[in-house]
């Protein structure tokens, strides 16, 4: 900032001689040895445009990949303990690990651990450990709440099904952190196999999770415990682990109950052991703010409305922040009420005492007390106020409720003692209390009550506004006016209306009398239940619908407005207004009016000067003076408001500072001033330039979110705890007690601490049921495909329930076509009747939680897409009919419908025959019910079958059954049986699958076909072209030969002639042969002669050419010469 | 209003004892009409009304939105229906496009103009953008017989944004709409003149649009009115209006000059009440703050109207959300001159301003589909 400081710094001077310079020189080679590229790399930065573009794109990609959608950081200031679950197959060493971990954190040895254990792990980290057993219900529930899962793996066995199942469970719930712990490495003898095994398992683990997933090794057991340094290492990892915020958990409050008490009246239980119980559950609120009296889902039990919710002092507090590295022994608190360990806990029902290192749950009373005194960590007197004197653990409080009530009564008596005298019972006390609160009217229209109310109000007004007497008078007058006018105008009117008018009136006079607005709006807040109910019923009259009026004769139009006014949002203005006064009052709300200090242009300018006014001031030389004046103003004005004072002080300080600066400023030279100016401009430019580009949007978005997070944290910070709870709900990190009524007795009777009890909070809409559309995929390791209509157990949101899904496919025309089975390797959609859950929530499905199978149990996973109250899933329907009578192009079709009404519904529908002839339904016939006339594009045959292809909506059964695994007895905990499939039922009862005879396959018998000859009509044949005319090829008529019987003489002659002919023939043949021979010889002779002749000719030609050549030569030589 | 909350929170309501001792007991026609409208907007709603009409059981379904048409009863203007619809519209499955027919402006409910001018900016702040947010007045219909038609369209959102709006700023301009149907077109000008007469003292940037509708667009009965809205530098809108008395209502006929003056005065009163949201949209802004994410929302308002108070109570009953209501400190005037020491005092910004703070319930729109 300061220019003088910067200039003081010495610049670096490189050595040019000496050993250092030599060393440097030897590093750098001779300049001339280097290539041009090495000498001046910058010049070669961009060789190819494409490459550069690619590189740029890559960097941009990497940059964008790093960005996440900014979310409001909702982690509380003091977060609840993180939940660390230890998961694994049986006999892998989970309990031992848990013991070792607890021992490492608390230095206490606890042998019998049941249920969750909360320990303090560090200065700002607490951990709740749970061990997850092998039940799939348990694994699902744990997967929903665990922040970190330790997956125990037996090195000898490798990864077992449980681990893989848990991975998938985690995936469906948003994937909390997972860490592997490899155990039983001492089963291997030599180091090499151990190393190989480790490597193999680690690779597999990384495949399953992510590259670089952490896998711990526990090498051996010593005295039934793992090596301390290995456990210590693991603990350190756990306590510094960053927890990922998961969407579902960040938007839903939940409590992982670490303690449960049955506070039913013991007498009721004695009379009826199966009576509904009143139960209080304890735990830290996690996730987000939890509201009292909201509905929660207890996983494995059902939906319940909280009767009561109170916050308690933290049983396992994080130690106060001091500058120390480690915790001392006292701060290493452990809290595990289900295992019988924990600090002293006071609450309504019982007192709990930490029994320190003692492990046995049973403890003598006196020593317990002593221990209590010794080990108490907090000032006891604080807690005693809230506590009662009952010491039995788990047992009902001796007189807790009674005592409580009595105390409460006394408390309330103090508040409203004057009313108490009039009305004895408790309700009336509360009522009086409520009426005391400023303005809530109870509906009693009697005179005395009203009067009392008025008095009360007046008195309160006086209280609140003691400094200005006049104002109080005004209020009184106003109130009276209202009261009397009300009474005069319509006595019959309900008090509600009056009260309303009263309110309105008050609102009008508010600027004079200070009224507590919160009380005005939520006046009945403090009132008793009963009073509230009455108030509610009153609301009903006045809320949506207007106040009832007793039969008043005139039903005129004017009345309408008065009546309607109750539900309308229109504010009538009073007609009589002093316009000038009004104008004066609102003068400053216009731009033309005065601006407030922070916004006033002049003030802003001054402020600006204070910030960067190093130079501008000097030009005017004024600022100094102005500030002084302002300072004077401030000091003169003895304002009563605190904020003002603060402001004034701030300014004073500022002034002093600036004064100091001004001195230096005056001494600055022109050069320095210029420098300063330049620097400022550069700063501005840098700021603008850096924030430009694609980052800007992201950055502003992020900043917005951060701001919101800051606001969320700071808004209610300074309020007292009970008020804060009222506005925000119970924020995460608070230890609360939740009371439930009418819980099933099985919850208590079959309570097992190893099963987690989760109170999952829900938003308003999630209590409802509806049709849930999901995208689902059968798990690739599940060895069956899933069938529509088969019941399936889903884990969705907090719930586990059985329902009947229908699978469907979204076709290209957006038709939801039902599928009978899920595709084998593809996503499909499904719809089922279930709880409304926000879109994007993951779920997983199992077919049964009861059966013990070595196979993979998770059937499918998916995500919620859409919620609705009706379904659009359709399946194909083919209606089949037969022609009854066929005309030219129309036909009567029967058997397709059963009544004329049905036909009427399908009029105009497209039909077709098997052969593909298309047609249309026309009109119903009268005679056989359901028959109709149809037209086709051609004449159909009587033997044809006619189809009508239609789509019919599928009715989804509204079946949902929560998996109540918590309520089952110990032995049947893992055997929850819900609805069975039809197949299962058939199998159990030995009923064969019914089959339609029609659907069975039979050998196809085809009769031999006889073709009739083609007959072409005569006239057509006549007209055919010749080539197409069927030709009847007749055999040419041959003369009939007659056998000739010769006379002997004739025969003799004939014989002679025959012989002569034969001889003649033979003679001719010989002659022919001879001739051929001759001809060949002659040809040879001629050829040889010819050859000689040719030879001679060739010779002659040769000679001739020679002569010619010679002559030419001669001629040429002659010419040359 | 409770039905509205019920629809949003998914809780069933049973309203009994509806005017049992009235001349005309039970639900009125406009209430039944409103229930019909709810039925059109939602899917799977079940409503059971007893024979006498004095008891109503309402089981809400999911909001589906889409295109709907509704003939509103003439006994209440469209504003009554539209106000409720505006609360529901951000949470529908598909963007809502509603055609409402009936009386556009009447004395007892905010008119469509007022809703458009003053409530829309508030709605816009929650939605983040005003893309697709529109109210088109096709026809105007004055009080007794109606005949008006408006088209309301609103986009739907998965989640609303939290609102932080505590600096109302200064009023920089005044706009308005003067409308008349089936009366002389000169009426609107008379309205504008008289209103400007009052307002010009405060601000010069005043522009009042005149909207005289004729023929088929003019509805069935005569009437005129003036809606004024003041816009501040920070983008908050304060609106007020006045409407002429209906034909056959038994009241004396309204003079345009009086009406204009009255409207101007009611605007001044609204400014007196002040705040970042005006009295008409107090309820809506409170509701949408509650239905936001689990973040703190803060808004400054003027005096709470009885309607808003009732609204806040319903919010408490249905969503268990309690508002923190504090009186805002009045801004201080700046030191104008160096010598004038008495200048340091509260600005004259009218009535007390309240800051309402609440934490959203983390409401998300469950009906909108994701793909």
UniProtKB/TrEMBL annotation, chain A:
Gene3D superfamilies membership: P-loop containing nucleotide triphosphate hydrolases
GO (cellular component) term, any one: nucleoplasm
SMART domains attached to this UniProt entry: AARP2CN (SM00785), DUF663 (SM01362)
Catalytic reaction annotation: GTP + H2O = GDP + phosphate + H(+)
Compartmental location: Nucleus, Nucleolus
Gene Ontology biological-process annotations: endonucleolytic cleavage of tricistronic rRNA transcript (SSU-rRNA, 5.8S rRNA, LSU-rRNA); maturation of SSU-rRNA from tricistronic rRNA transcript (SSU-rRNA, 5.8S rRNA, LSU-rRNA)
Composition bias, Acidic residues: 412-425, 433-444, 475-494, 648-658
Keywords per UniProt: ATP-binding, GTP-binding, Hydrolase, Nucleotide-binding, Nucleus, Phosphoprotein, Ribosome biogenesis
ATP-binding keyword on record: yes
InterPro entries from the UniProt entry: AARP2CN, Bms1/Tsr1, Bms1_N, BMS1_TSR1_C, G_Bms1/Tsr1_dom, P-loop_NTPase
Pfam family, one: AARP2CN
Bias-annotated ranges (Basic and acidic residues): 402-411, 620-634, 659-669
A GO term for molecular function: ATP binding
Entry annotated with the keyword Iron: no
PANTHER family, sorted: RIBOSOME BIOGENESIS PROTEIN, RIBOSOME BIOGENESIS PROTEIN BMS1 HOMOLOG
Family in the record: Belongs to the TRAFAC class translation factor GTPase superfamily. Bms1-like GTPase family. BMS1 subfamily.
Protein name per UniProt: Bms1-type G domain-containing protein
UniProtKB/TrEMBL annotation, chain B:
InterPro entries: RNA3'-term_phos_cycl_insert, RNA3'_phos_cyclase_dom, RNA3'_phos_cyclase_dom_sf, RNA3'_term_phos_cyc, RNA3'_term_phos_cyc_type_2, RNA3'_term_phos_cycl-like_CS, RNA3'P_cycl/enolpyr_Trfase_a/b, RPTC_insert
Assigned GO CC terms: nucleolus
Gene Ontology MF, one: RNA endonuclease activity
One GO term of the biological process aspect: endonucleolytic cleavage of tricistronic rRNA transcript (SSU-rRNA, 5.8S rRNA, LSU-rRNA)
Cellular localisation: Nucleus, Nucleolus
Gene3D superfamilies in the cross-refs: RNA 3'-terminal phosphate cyclase domain, RNA 3'-terminal phosphate cyclase, insert domain
Residues of the RNA 3'-terminal phosphate cyclase insert domain: 166-271
Keywords linked to the UniProt accession: Nucleus, Ribosome biogenesis
Domain RNA 3'-terminal phosphate cyclase residues, every copy: 2-325
SUPFAM superfamilies named among the record's database cross-references: EPT/RTPC-like
Pfam families noted in UniProt: RTC, RTC_insert
Family: Belongs to the RNA 3'-terminal cyclase family. Type 2 subfamily.
Protein's name according to its UniProt entry: RNA 3'-terminal phosphate cyclase-like protein
Organism: Elysia crispata (lettuce slug)
């Amino acid at each position: 900032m300061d220019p003088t400081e910067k200039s003081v710094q010495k610049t670096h001077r490189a050595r040019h001689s000496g050993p250092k310079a030599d060393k440097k020189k030897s590093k750098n080679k001779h300049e001339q040895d280097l290539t041009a590229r090495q000498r001046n790399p910058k010049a070669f930065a961009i060789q190819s445009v494409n490459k550069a573009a690619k590189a740029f794109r890559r960097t941009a990609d990497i940059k964008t990949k790093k960005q996440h959608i900014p979310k409001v950081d909702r982690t509380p200031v003091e977060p609840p303990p993180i939940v660390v679950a230890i998961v694994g197959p049986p006999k892998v060493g989970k309990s031992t690990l848990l013991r070792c971990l607890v021992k490492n954190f608390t230095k206490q040895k606890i042998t019998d651990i049941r249920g969750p254990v909360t320990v303090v792990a560090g200065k700002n980290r607490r951990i709740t450990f749970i061990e997850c057993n092998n039940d799939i219900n348990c694994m699902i529930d744990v997967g929903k709440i665990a922040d970190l899962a330790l997956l125990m793996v037996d090195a000898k066995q490798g990864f077992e099904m449980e681990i893989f199942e848990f991975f998938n469970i985690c995936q469906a719930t948003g994937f909390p952190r997972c860490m592997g712990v490899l155990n039983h490495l001492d089963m291997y003898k030599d180091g090499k196999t151990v190393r190989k095994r480790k490597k193999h398992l680690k690779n597999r683990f990384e495949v399953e999770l992510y590259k670089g997933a952490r896998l711990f090794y526990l090498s051996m057991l010593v005295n039934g415990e793992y090596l301390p340094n290995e456990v210590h290492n693991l603990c350190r990892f756990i306590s510094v682990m960053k927890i990922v915020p998961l969407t579902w958990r960040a938007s839903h409050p939940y409590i992982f109950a670490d303690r449960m008490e049955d506070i039913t009246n013991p007498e009721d239980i004695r009379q009826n052991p199966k009576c509904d119980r009143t139960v209080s559950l304890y735990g830290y609120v996690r996730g987000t703010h939890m509201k009292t009296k909201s509905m929660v889902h207890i996983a494995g039990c059902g939906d319940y409305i909280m009767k009561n919710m109170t916050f308690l002092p933290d049983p396992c507090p994080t130690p106060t922040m001091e500058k120390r590295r480690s915790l001392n022994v006292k701060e290493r608190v452990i809290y595990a009420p289900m295992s019988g360990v924990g600090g002293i806990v006071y609450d309504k029902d019982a007192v709990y005492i930490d029994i320190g290192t003692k492990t046995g749950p049973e403890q003598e009373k006196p020593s317990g007390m002593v221990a209590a005194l010794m080990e108490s960590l907090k000032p006891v007197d604080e807690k005693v106020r809230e506590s009662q004197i009952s010491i039995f653990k788990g047992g009902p409080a001796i007189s807790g409720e009674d005592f409580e009530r009595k105390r409460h009564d006394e408390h309330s008596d103090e508040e409203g003692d004057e009313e108490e005298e009039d009305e004895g019972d408790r309700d009336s006390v509360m009522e009086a209390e409520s009426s005391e609160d400023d303005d809530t009217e109870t509906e009693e229209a009697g005179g005395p009550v009203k009067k009392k109310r008025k008095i009360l109000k007046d008195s309160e007004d006086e209280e609140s506004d003691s400094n200005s007497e006049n104002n109080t008078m005004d209020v009184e007058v106003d109130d009276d006016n209202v009261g009397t006018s009300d009474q005069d105008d319509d006595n019959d009117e309900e008090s509600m209306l009056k009260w309303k008018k009263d309110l309105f009136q008050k609102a009008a006079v508010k600027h004079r009398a200070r009224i507590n607005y919160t009380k005005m709006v939520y006046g009945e807040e403090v009132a008793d239940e009963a009073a509230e109910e009455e108030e509610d019923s009153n609301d009903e009259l006045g809320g949506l619908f207007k106040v009832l009026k007793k039969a008043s004769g005139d039903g005129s139009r004017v009345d309408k407005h008065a009546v309607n006014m109750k539900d309308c949002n229109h504010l009538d203005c009073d007609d009589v207004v002093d316009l000038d006064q009004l104008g004066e009052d609102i003068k400053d709300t216009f731009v033309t009016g005065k601006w407030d200090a922070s916004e006033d242009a002049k003030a802003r300018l001054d402020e600006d000067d204070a910030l960067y006014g190093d130079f501008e001031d000097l030009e005017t030389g004024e600022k100094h003076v102005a500030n002084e004046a302002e300072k004077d103003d401030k000091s003169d004005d003895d304002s009563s408001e605190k904020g003002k004072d603060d402001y004034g002080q701030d300014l004073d300080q500022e002034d002093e500072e600036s004064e100091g600066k001004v001195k230096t400023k005056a001494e600055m030279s022109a050069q320095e001033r210029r420098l300063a100016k330049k620097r400022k401009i550069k700063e501005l430019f840098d700021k603008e330039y850096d924030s430009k580009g694609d980052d800007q949007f992201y950055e502003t978005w992020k900043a917005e979110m951060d701001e919101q997070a800051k606001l969320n944290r700071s808004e209610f910070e300074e309020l007292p705890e009970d008020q804060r709870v009222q506005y925000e709900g119970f924020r995460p990190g608070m230890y609360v007690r939740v009371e439930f009524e009418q819980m099933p007795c099985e919850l208590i009777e079959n309570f097992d601490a190893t099963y987690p009890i989760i109170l999952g909070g829900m938003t308003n809409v999630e209590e409802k049921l509806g049709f849930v559309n999901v995208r689902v995929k059968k798990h690739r390791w599940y060895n069956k495909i899933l069938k529509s209509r088969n019941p399936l157990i889903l884990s969705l949101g907090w719930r586990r329930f059985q329902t009947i899904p229908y699978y469907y496919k979204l076709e290209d025309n957006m038709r939801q076509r039902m599928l009978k089975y899920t595709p084998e390797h593809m996503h499909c959609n499904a719809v089922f009747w279930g709880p409304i859950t926000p879109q994007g929530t993951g779920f997983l499905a199992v077919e049964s939680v009861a059966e013990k199978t070595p196979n993979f149990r998770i059937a499918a996973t998916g995500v919620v897409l859409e919620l609705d109250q009706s379904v659009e899933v359709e399946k194909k329907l083919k209606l089949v009919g037969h022609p009854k009578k066929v005309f030219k192009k129309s036909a009567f079709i029967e058997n397709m419908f059963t009544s004329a009404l049905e036909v009427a519904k399908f009029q105009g529908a497209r039909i077709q025959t098997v052969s593909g002839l298309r047609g249309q339904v026309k009109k119903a016939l009268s005679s056989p019910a359901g028959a109709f006339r149809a037209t086709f594009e051609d004449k159909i045959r009587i033997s044809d079958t006619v189809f009508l292809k239609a789509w019919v909506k599928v009715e989804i059964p509204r079946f949902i059954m929560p998996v109540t695994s918590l309520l089952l007895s110990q032995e049947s905990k893992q055997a929850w049986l819900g609805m069975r499939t039809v197949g299962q039922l058939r199998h159990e009862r030995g009923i064969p699958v019914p089959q339609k005879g029609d659907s069975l396959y039979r050998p196809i018998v085809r009769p031999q076909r006889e073709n009739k000859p083609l007959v072409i009509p005569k006239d057509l044949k006549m007209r055919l072209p010749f080539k197409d005319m069927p030709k009847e090829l007749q055999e040419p008529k041959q003369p009939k030969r007659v056998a000739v019987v010769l006379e002997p003489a004739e025969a003799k002659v004939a014989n002679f002639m025959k012989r002569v002919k034969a001889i003649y023939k033979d003679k001719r043949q010989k002659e022919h042969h001879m001739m051929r021979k001759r001809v060949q010889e002659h040809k040879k002779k001629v050829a040889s002669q010819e050859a000689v002749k040719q030879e001679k000719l060739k010779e002659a030609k040769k000679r001739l050419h020679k002569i010619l050549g010679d002559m030419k030569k001669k001629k040429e030589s002659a010419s040359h010469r | 209003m409770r039905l509205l909350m019920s629809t949003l929170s998914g809780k069933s309501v049973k309203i009994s004892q509806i005017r049992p001792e009235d001349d005309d007991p039970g639900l009125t026609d406009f209430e039944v009409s409103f229930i019909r409208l709810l039925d059109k907007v939602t899917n799977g709603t079940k409503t059971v009304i007893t024979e006498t009409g004095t008891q109503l059981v309402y089981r809400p379904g999911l909001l589906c939105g889409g295109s709907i048409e509704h003939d509103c009863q003439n006994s209440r203007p469209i504003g009554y229906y539209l106000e409720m619809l505006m609360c529901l519209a951000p949470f529908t499955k598909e963007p809502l496009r509603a055609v409402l027919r009936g009386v556009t402006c009447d004395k007892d409910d905010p008119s469509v103009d007022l809703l458009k001018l003053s409530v829309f900016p508030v709605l816009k702040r929650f939605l983040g953008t005003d893309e697709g947010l529109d109210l088109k007045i096709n026809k105007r219909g004055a009080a007794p017989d109606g005949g008006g038609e408006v088209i309301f369209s609103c986009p739907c959102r998965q989640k609303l944004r939290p609102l932080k709006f505590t600096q109302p700023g200064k009023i920089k301009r005044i706009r308005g709409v003067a409308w008349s149907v089936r009366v002389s077109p000169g009426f609107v000008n008379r309205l504008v003149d008289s209103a400007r007469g009052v307002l010009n003292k405060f601000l010069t940037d005043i522009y009042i649009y005149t909207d005289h509708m004729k023929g088929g667009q003019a509805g069935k009965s005569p009437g005129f009115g003036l809606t004024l809205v003041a816009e501040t530098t920070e983008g908050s809108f304060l609106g007020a209006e006045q409407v002429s008395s209906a034909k056959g209502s038994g009241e004396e006929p309204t003079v345009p000059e009086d009406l204009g003056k009255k409207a101007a005065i009611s605007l001044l009163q609204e400014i007196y009440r002040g705040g970042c949201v005006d009295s008409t949209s107090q309820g809506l802004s409170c509701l949408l703050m509650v239905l936001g994410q689990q973040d703190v929302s803060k808004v400054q308002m003027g005096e709470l109207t009885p309607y808003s108070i009732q609204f806040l109570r319903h919010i408490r009953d249905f969503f268990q959300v309690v508002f923190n209501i504090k009186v805002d400190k009045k801004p201080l005037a700046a030191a104008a001159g160096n010598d004038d020491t008495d200048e340091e005092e509260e600005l004259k910004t009218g009535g007390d301003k309240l800051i309402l703070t609440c934490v959203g319930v983390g409401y998300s729109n469950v009906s909108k589909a994701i793909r």
